[in-house]
Every structure is written in C-alpha cells, then in structure tokens.
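Re-run with default settings, no changes from the original entry. Doing this only to confirm the output is reproducible before filing.
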Amino acid sequence: TFLVGDDEERIEYVSKNILCARSVVFRTMFGIGMKERDAAEVTVRNTDLATFTALVRYLLTDQLDLGEEGGGRAQRALDLRELAQMYQ
C-alpha cells in the first residue's frame, strides 16, 4: 500500500516485484536494509494520487494515461515527467 501526497491517499494492490523489475529506485527502496522493504505502507510525498497512479500503471502495463482531454493533460504530463525522473 502506498500513501500518496499530503492527504496520504491510498493506492493498494501494487506488486513490489514488478515495480522492482521496472525501476532501479523501487528496487533499491524495497531492497535489503531499507525500511520500506518490510513496511505495510510506503509514503510518497511531493505528488498527487492521479500522477502516482499514472506512473504505477505505466510501470505495470507500458500504457501511459494522462487522464481526460483538456488543459489538465499538459500539467499531468509535466508532473509525471518530474515524478518519473525521481523513480526512473
């Protein structure tokens, strides 16, 4: 379970194994000696639930979802790019 953003919104049922296979940062985070390895909940700050969910969905499926059409898509793309750089 991830607690995302300042409001600590929940995203559940994410496979740590797949995240580790797709991201060096997640592999390190869930690796030996890190507190997240055995934690039931991992807090992710500096993002919102929709952006983090889009990143996780991309890592799991190779499909990029920027949400509904409109002006929010450009901002979501920028937010997702910034988040992806942190979790590459």
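Residues 16 and 27 are 8 Å apart (CA to CA). The chain has a mean pLDDT of 85.
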